Amino acid sequence: MLNGGINLHIPDGFIPIAQCLVYYVILIVALYFSVKWARSNLDEKRIPLLAVLAAGIFAIMSMNMPIPFGTSGHMVGGALVAIVFLAPEAAVLVFTVVLLIQALIFGDGGITALGANVLNMAIIGGFVGLYTFKGLNGTIGKYPAAGIAAWLATVIAALACAIEMGIAGTFPMNIGIPSMVLYHFFIGIIEAVLTVIVLAALDKFRPDLLAWNAGDA
Amino acid sequence: MVDITQIMRFDDLASKNSPIHNLEGRIKLISTVFIILVCVVSKELFIPIVLEIFLLIVLKLATLSYWDSAKRLLMLLPFGGAIIIFQPFIQPGNIIWSYSWLHITDFGLNWAILLLVRMIVSLTAIIIYSSTTPLQEMASSFRKLKMPRDLAMILSIMVRFLFLFVDELAAIRKSQKSRNFSIHGKNTPYKWRVKQVGYTIGMMFLKAYEQGERVHKSMVSRGFSDASEMFDEKKSPERSDYIFLLTIIIIVIVLEIIIFKYAGQLGYFGQNLAIN
To answer: Is the pLDDT of residue B26 over 90?
Structure first.
């Protein structure tokens, strides 16, 4: 069975090493700013909090959901984490460890491709998710905004993945972009619905956990 | 994605005793990454194939089952396999087979074979690594290799809680199953099923967050502060560790020399199959 998450988990060998290095540099810069953000915003609580959250996301990512057309996919949650903290940096920290462990234990996503995978799912996913949410929040309300943000984050992450594979020469962009975007157009709907349900649940049971309730949004 | 409940089984496997299990954590991590790196830069089949043979010997030394490892490999292949399978049809080159609008090119086919071999070797290396290294040892290897402190701590604590969440998820699934709930079941409306998955994820997220807060409180009450450091058992690599790593490096150097000097005589195995 095809799995929705796979196309975003680039394996080893698909991207030439020089390009992998570029993505690693991006990852290191992103991590630098993310650690700095965590230090100034989450105080000493940050480490256990992000760690346990990463373990939770790991479990969440393993829940496969059937998707129309006979395939299945799972939630990624990049936009969700970014919206909960109102910071893409949180997504970067959480997903770097999640993807590292996934690569080392399950071989899901490559070690050399880790930089590219974090770039797509956490950096691009987190930024697109958060800023789409912030942009739309005032006009259409927070839940529709979060839904659209999560959907767009999934589609743009897939687009980025297709572009990277195109640059790598592994998959021509003229085929890769339309197929990836179309496929994730549908996966994104599931991601959006799940993101909204989770946010609504959090808002109901632990509103203090959501950064938007702290008056930052 | 692979069933994460398997993570328990992997950790059991990793706690066994064998010459490979007993290697120092950092050595295993560096060797794994090194083999993957060599594979990723190889443009000929020769080096990855010899490395695969080497890894199969390591697998035997680690007393791992060939059959179980092959099954794991087969489970992982579809991840990149979907992309590989298209290669012969989409890459430009000389057409070697065609049927109406569909045709296979030699460059495409060669590239697909190279990608597949690279992937199999990388995954074999990962399977050996994860079957011989407990999660805690992985985390401590990263700490010893000077991963930035905050990230290393997040990794170490995450790894501890992974098992808890695997249990939690299994419990939730069991209770859903006992009420005849199935994510894939067609007896209930799709929308309703998505909603249930959403609630489950929300629950996991909340549990994760609250557990994180509790863990923090219990850590603080035991003296944890921003200046705390993780304790690492002082274990330096032994002679056997260096011999293992050195063997791999020597094999790779010899292989590179063979490719450099005698690529022409290796036939298809020495041919540059890469398109990038």
So the answer is: yes
Q: ipTM of the assembly?
A: 0.88
Residue A33, classed as helix, strand or coil, is helix
- Quote the pTM value: 0.90
Measured distance CA(A131)–CA(A153) in Å, rounded: 10
**B164 burial level (CB within 10 Å; 0-12, 13-18, 19+):** middle
The reported pLDDT for the residue numbered A67 is 65
Which residue reads 């909340």 in tokens?
B206
Shortest Cα distance, chain B CAs vs residue A27, angstroms: 13
Distance from CA of B55 to the nearest CA of A (A): 16
CB atoms within 10 A of CB A109: 26
Contacts with B220 from chain A: Cβ below 8 Å: 44
Residues of B in contact with A169 (CB under 8 A): 275-276
**Residues 6+ positions from B230 with CB-CB distance below 8 Å:** B140, B143, B152, B153, B156
DSSP class of B179: T
Distance CA B10, CA A106 (A): 10
* Residues from chain A contacting residue B276 (CB–CB below 8 Å): 16, 168-170
- Show which of residues 107-166 on chain A sit within 8 Å of chain B, judged by CB atoms: 107-112, 165
Length of chain B equals 276
Residues B72-78: what's their mean pLDDT? 85
Instruction: Give residue-wise pLDDT tens across range A51-92.
Output: 888 988 888 887 766 666 556 667 788 899 999 889 999 999
